[in-house]
Amino acid sequence: MYVRSLWAERFRNLRRLELEPHPRFTVLYGDNGQGKTNILEALYLLATLRSFRTSPPGAVDDLIQMGERKATVGAWVERLGVERCLRVEMSREGPGRKQVQIDGKTARSGAFFGGFNAVLFCPDDLRLPKGPPAQRRRFLDRAVWNTRPTYLREVQAYERILRSRNALLRGEGRTGCSSQMLEVYDEQLAAAGAVLVGRRVAYLQDLAGGFHAAFARVSRSGLSAEVRYHASVPLPVEQGETAVQQIAAQLRQRLLDDRRRDLQRGFTHSGPHADDLEFFLGGQPAAAFASQGQLRALVLALKIAEICHLHTVLGDPPVLLLDDVSSELDPRRNAYLFEFLQEISCQGFITTTSPRYILLDAAERRDFQVHAGEATLANHVL
Ligand SMILES: Nc1ncnc2c1ncn2[C@@H]1O[C@H](COP(=O)(O)OP(=O)(O)OP(=O)(O)O)[C@@H](O)[C@H]1O
Ligand SMILES: [Mg+2]
Asked: CATH number for the 119-317 domain, one of 1.20.1050.90, 3.20.20.70, 3.90.1300.10, 3.40.50.720?
């Protein structure tokens, strides 16, 4: 898939942006704070209706230019030969604070997903193995969601039940916390949670071979790379529907076992919201043993595996958004990243403070200088 044109109005510091990207690589360069990441954020929003920087990710207020009430982003995106016009309007007021349109017609968000897939790679990702568990869960959930749009609804269903159960544990309801009510929530939470765990584990199993192979190429060290899922409950060896039922039964039991502790503290201790990922290098936990360079190589390999896997699943390569990654990689790994980018047939948007990090031929790229929220086609000689 590829973005033919992009525009943004009153979106962050992008007052009025119009950009015609290159079918292969679009390099956005400029000084700090000029709006490079904002452009990637606009693209990411068009793919996911979320931001990777706001909290919560669905919030719109920070995205609208200060002093303005509305913002718009839009793009013509081609996917498997079909071109569609995607548009998202954000508003500070009103019930529908984010309105989406496909080809000029208002659409539900469900219809929006799946038409435009983007994979973001940013410096924060490079800290994934040692970062907080929530960051790893977010990485995994985004990756699964890209391969299956309905996963978002499954996550939201789980989170809704979790919030209700936590409120009940704290006795926030009118009737306080009855054990009957808790049983109902436990049943629902275990069922919804098992679906998430099943999807995450299946995704990681699908990714394992590609991750191992990508790491071998990135590091040329002969060490094996692995990523394991740490669930709150023991997982069955098999995958599929019966496995999900088994996980649900395990989760139900765990909720029951934890009940006293949950009631004392007023929150649910176990479940996919508390699970984690762990990286291994040569069989050893990477967060404790691997060097900085090895940790970065692990993440680079993971992102490459994610992109390749998504390409296979979609039958079409996703659009890549690389936010200032080169400055964080050593020259050898940076060179490898560009080798990989040139091999795959993706369109990529790459931000940098210095175009000299960007090891791509002039024929394959279009460079824009980003200054004070405006992008100007560059005429520099590379
Ligand atoms: N809602 C908003 N309204 C107006 N300006 C905003 C808004 N949100 C952010 N900005 C401005 O956008 C700029 C930051 O843009 P961005 O993060 O894209 O910078 P950048 O070019 O990626 O910089 P760096 O190289 O440091 O990563 C800041 O100057 C910030 O003040
Ligand atoms: Mg930036």
From this structure: 1.20.1050.90
